[in-house]
Amino acid sequence: GAMRSRAEVDATLQTAKLNPAELLPVAHCLSFAPQAGTGECCLLQLEPGLCAELEEGRSLVIRGEKDEQAVLCSKDKTYDMKIADTSNMLLFIPGCKTPEQLNADQASCNIIHSQIAGFSNNYWELRRCRPKLKKLRKLLMEDPYEGPENQKDKSLTFSKYTTEDLLSLIQASEEEILHQLQVIDACKIEGYWRIVEFDYEMKLLNHVTQLIDSESWSLSKVPLCTCLEELGSLEPKEMIEHILLSYGRKYIDDAGEVYFEMNEDKICRAIAQMLLQNAVKFNLSEFQEVWQQSVPEGMTTRLDQLKGLALVDKSSRPETIFLLKVEDLPESNQERFNSLFSIREKWTEVDITPYIQDLCAEKQTVGALLTKYARSSMQNGVKVYNSRRPIS
Amino acid sequence: EARCLSRSGGAGGLAQWVLVELQGEVEPRQSGGLGGSVLGDLHYTRQGVPVLIVGHHILYGKVVQLEKPFAVLVKQGAGEPGPAQPHARYTVTALIKTKLLFKTRPKPIITNVPKKV
To answer: ipTM of this model?
Structure first.
């Protein structure tokens, strides 16, 4: 139909018994755009910070396969997406001005014809969530790097992932993915992200620790150059450097030489894993003895180096220790707790914390998680936690 | 695969739209859907109060600055209309930081006062 004229608008005002003198001179005539009802447009409610990011020109990405619950990612955060219904009707209107804008813009008595682009009674709501990173390890473990001699025939398996591949498959922001790759000591080989297979990693580490020993270097001053010279004939230089980066902290001295300060805790922990993976469980005191003997000269083993890697059973006689890696446990909260309670019926907070720490949301504490997913009781004067529901 | 929310408007800023929130449902006067039909006239009083004349009703509302702004997403390509589908492709077309909230009960416009007989 034809657009409304000023005369028609004024006539309507008169019929409505509104005094034009009390109104701003500019009026909007609102009509529905032709495609308004087609559901092409929808609303996304923005969490703090996201609006500014969009205005600065940064993009948001929706990630998730058809069988996954979609998440929205900014450059560094991940959000769950959920539809929120409202009992009201929301109309979204381009070119509609607010009173401030009209006052600032001294137009004469006029009409703005605004077309309603769409309407809805729901919108996407966002809630910050933990990035879903378990899949990252799973993908990279499809084909761990076992060293140059053990390269599988490339035509048989091609389970290799570039950064772009990972960005399209993992429900997490780019920064969260890159950070996690660093945490798990992944390395880029020929453009693909790889996890080093554990036995090969220990072989590399062993080369380095033996060299440190034979050269009598201080553990906090291991020279990169010499390592590459001495070990470069045994293993690829990139892998030598990678193992130093994984198990040490890189620094440059005043003369510009690159050194590594070796991470004692991490080395002891890796050696413990190497020992523990060979059996279901070990006599604790025997293990501790062998473990101390196995680590490089000058390093001291401590059980707290094994948080999230191994669990001590103080109730058995003799006490035992077994491998339990947090990264092998389920990713979702309820499933993680179910799994932990099926391994052990009652947990102290000290024992369970390393296995639930990663579940904490942005400002959530371990205590809050335990309150929600466990039930507490006293046992021999110590507070313990067990499942809220019967475990079959 | 990941679906980037691409932006319309290129290097320039995103358009700013306004949200109008009405109670109940909007129904077309004639059959054939709402596309193309008139909703009504929107005025503001000199104090900045929005006034909406819809059909035979006057609605008074208020201007609200949204604590959580909205992004308007437009679905790319052909697809089934209906509730938002996360696995479709979307473009961020505009931002909405302001809404006109009409919550008061509409006042009917009485056009003909019957004469006393």
So the answer is: 0.83
